Amino acid sequence: MRKSSEGKKVKNPPDALLEYELCKTFGWLPSELYEQDNETIEKFIIIMNALNDTEKKGSRKDRRNDLKQKAGVTAGR
Hints:
This protein is mainly alpha-helical. The protein has 3 helices and 2 strands. It has one domain.
């Protein structure tokens, strides 16, 4: 499952969406993407998924901390 550019999960993304995300994430032109071998692409997809997961966890933590601050709860409790 991939995260689309709108942040929504897409179970089987169209190839164009995956290509777009790879180019955007790693600063490649489409021609540079097409020059990569399958093993490299698979590794970069794993990296991209890990980056998305880390970002998602950070966002949840930030939202929790914001809610704590609004509720007047101090950190460390």
